[in-house]
């Protein structure tokens, strides 16, 4: 009877591991589809659209349609920045290695979450196998002012070791939001 209990536990563990693998793949696919643009990129695009004459050719989108799309994207970006508290100030991407089914890119990202500035640098390895693309983050480096809080330093160190960007962004968002609440509260009592 002991073996059947262990077998049930092993089956449950395997099912959970498979679910984790599928969720990780789904998350990585979503990450690849999303793209972030800095405020500077948006302003450059707007200026370039304003200076170009409106030309509508067969098979191409008109300038007014592009302006409407840009305004829609700006509204979406503004909503996301307000909703999450993240304001990205710069992003750069450099392809280090590219083969038929493997790409290594180096990313640099900086911004603020509420009032806490941060900088990230990491490598993203993308491998393609039979129409599936998997991504792995490596060499994660996080630069953040710890504000004399040892817990933040410990958290940053653990996150760098694990290379877990999702946990970093989720935790930073929550921490920064409550950091702002504490700061305003203390200012009120001064």
TrEMBL record:
Cell inner membrane recorded as keyword: no
InterPro entries listed in its UniProt record: CENP-P
GO terms for cellular component: chromosome, centromeric region; nucleus
Residues in coiled coil: 6-83
Keywords noted in UniProt: Coiled coil
Domain of life: Eukaryota
GO biological process terms, semicolon-separated: CENP-A containing chromatin assembly
Signal peptide region: none
Keyword Coiled coil among UniProt keywords: yes
Pfam families, A to Z: CENP-P
Protein name: CENPP protein
Underlying gene: Cenpp
